[in-house]
């Protein structure tokens, strides 16, 4: 059961798992709290408890996070997207799921479950956030993204049937741009057995734990980044101050880079973070120290709060944390779909290895 009091910690924790993407966690928290206050707590279901005859549909917001902050949904678009998938598929949705673990996109299924009255699965399709629709474990399992529905705040609905998942991304991205670079989507309808294979279990529970850990660390004057690194098999890469951010919205994505000048033990070093909605590569003094599909997370150095790519500003003092991705992303098939080469980088993938740094 998710109540209003849980939402802030889930949003905060999912913003860490979102690797800088997935949308603004504060905006998502406000929307989710409002819907729970209006419709009541959301019932959650463990992934292993989903019945075989279930009809599971994940939901999300699609578009550039920078635009979604300025043009948030009203709240009913996600339920309308679910109903549009029902109309095409000829089946009633039985469970809502989270497409990606990100700040706003961890909140969208809570909003959809509250407004529709459907149970919410404790899991997600990635174990993190990625910028493109086909970048989910379901694609590795041959599960189709369509029938897919897209809804905007004006009342427009688009239904898609595509030949494969990359085409779903391509056509949906074009429609999202026409919708003002922001759309509510429902996609990847799946059965119970498919969901148990293609969803990462316990994502919302983990996000709740991470959010609570940040609060406890602050209260106990412990280092947030190093505590999370120790508990999640990650590594603290860098501590620095944001010296420059170059960001633009193009093709429905927020793309850019941030330059960090080191402070403290890293005062003689410099880091460059490259992002496409999410952080993709961390380069320290000309050497790649972390890259997609592992999670590159930026935290406020003083509070431990996650800093998303659209929120990063000149002068912020931050800590860069790297966490290992879901093991399936480290396979040859996973790296072909979401590895550095897909995004145009010529360096090999080097997995994050926990250290005492």
TrEMBL record:
Residues 164-352 form the S-Me-THD-like C-terminal domain. Pfam families: S-Me-THD_C, S-Me-THD_N. Residues 5-161 form the S-Me-THD N-terminal domain. InterPro entries: S-Me-THD-like_C, S-Me-THD_C_sf, S-Me-THD_N, S-Me-THD_N_sf. This is DUF917 domain-containing protein. It comes from Nonomuraea muscovyensis.
């Amino acid at each position: 059961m998710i109540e209003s009091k849980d939402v802030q910690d889930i949003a905060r924790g999912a913003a860490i798992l979102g690797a800088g993407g997935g949308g603004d966690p504060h905006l998502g928290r406000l929307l989710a709290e409002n819907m729970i206050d209006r419709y009541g707590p959301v019932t959650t279901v463990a992934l292993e408890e989903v019945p075989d005859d279930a009809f599971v549909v994940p939901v999300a917001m699609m578009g550039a996070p920078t635009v979604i902050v300025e043009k948030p949904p009203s709240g009913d678009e996600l339920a309308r997207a679910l109903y549009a998938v029902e109309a095409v598929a000829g089946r009633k949705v039985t469970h809502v799921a989270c497409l990606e673990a990100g700040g706003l996109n961890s909140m969208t299924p809570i909003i959809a479950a509250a407004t529709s009255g459907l149970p919410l699965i404790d899991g997600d399709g990635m174990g993190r956030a990625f910028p493109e629709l086909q970048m989910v474990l379901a694609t590795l399992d041959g599960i189709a993204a369509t029938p897919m529905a897209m809804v905007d705040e004006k009342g427009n609905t688009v239904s898609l049937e595509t030949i494969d998942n990359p085409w779903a991304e391509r056509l949906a991205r074009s429609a999202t741009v026409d919708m003002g670079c922001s759309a509510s989507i429902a996609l990847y309808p799946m059965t119970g057995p498919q969901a148990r294979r293609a969803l990462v279990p316990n994502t919302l529970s983990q996000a709740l734990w991470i959010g609570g850990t940040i609060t406890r660390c602050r209260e106990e004057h412990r280092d947030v980044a190093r505590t999370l690194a120790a508990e999640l098999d990650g590594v603290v890469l860098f501590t620095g101050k944001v010296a420059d951010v170059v960001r633009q919205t193009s093709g429905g994505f927020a793309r850019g880079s941030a330059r960090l000048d080191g402070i403290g033990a890293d005062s003689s070093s410099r880091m460059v973070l490259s992002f496409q909605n999410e952080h993709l590569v961390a380069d320290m003094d000309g050497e790649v120290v972390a890259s997609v599909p592992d999670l590159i997370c930026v935290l406020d150095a003083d509070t431990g709060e996650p800093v998303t790519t659209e929120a990063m500003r000149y002068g912020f003092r931050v800590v860069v944390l790297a966490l290992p991705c879901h093991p399936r992303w480290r396979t040859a098939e996973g790296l072909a779909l979401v590895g550095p080469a897909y995004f145009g980088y010529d360096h090999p993938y080097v997995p994050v290895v926990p250290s005492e740094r």
